[in-house]
Write a structure and sequence with these properties.
Blueprint lengths: L4 H7 L17 E6 L8 H10 L9 E8 L2 E5 L13 H6 E9 L8 H5 L5 E3 L5 E3 L9 H5 L6 E2 L6 E2 L5 H4 L6 H5 L5 E5 L6 H8 L2 E2 L11 E4 L7
Parallel strand pairs: 1-11
Antiparallel strand pairs: 1-9, 2-3, 2-4, 5-6, 7-8, 10-11
Length: about 230
Amino acid sequence: MASGPGVAATKKFALPENIPDPYKAKHHWIYVININNCIGCGNCVRACKRENSVPDTVFRTWVERYLLTNEGVYVESPKGALEGFEHYNEEIRKKAIRSFTVPKLCNHCHQPPCVQVCPVGATFKAPEGHVLVDWTHCIGCAYCVQACPYAVRFINPVEHKADKCSWCYHRTSKGMRPACVTVCPNKARLWGDMNDNEAEVTKIFNEGQWMVLKPQMHTDPSVFYVGLPKEVI
């Protein structure tokens, strides 16, 4: 059985009886990813693994590298970028028009399809925006895995329960930042409270220069991207 602070915290989640409107909660947490600042080092992936005791074969967050050429778009994420990326060889560099890296994680949607399909109410949306999984109720049916349009959910191979990024709920519920944010050396990952007008994420959001993944799904994500190329959307 897996152990660690993340797993322990996950098991303690309780289902709120009256879930308030997240926009009226004390905090309105959002997550911002600036593609222009991501260097694909993999620090965030390693931090997530350590913090949440994530098994070797699965990832709560990962980084994809895109290569644009005249022949097409190539995407790779070796081991989720756990060890970063190797440099392109000379032949590939000659073909490259542009290359960039894109972190991925649960979008903690305001209209989460995963919550709607859970037959036992194990997946739920917490008052301040976290979409969480109560492992004491989860039966591992994987309906939520199939429903997620962002492919961020998986069945934990050790616990046999639905698993995904929780924005490090055991940390953020105590006022700390997610582990992946704390280790990013270039501020590509930001976390903050939209109810705080002075928060960096609020200022970025108000500038309006952000995008979300798959906007056509109308899930109202809480993860916003700055500098997101059209090849990713």
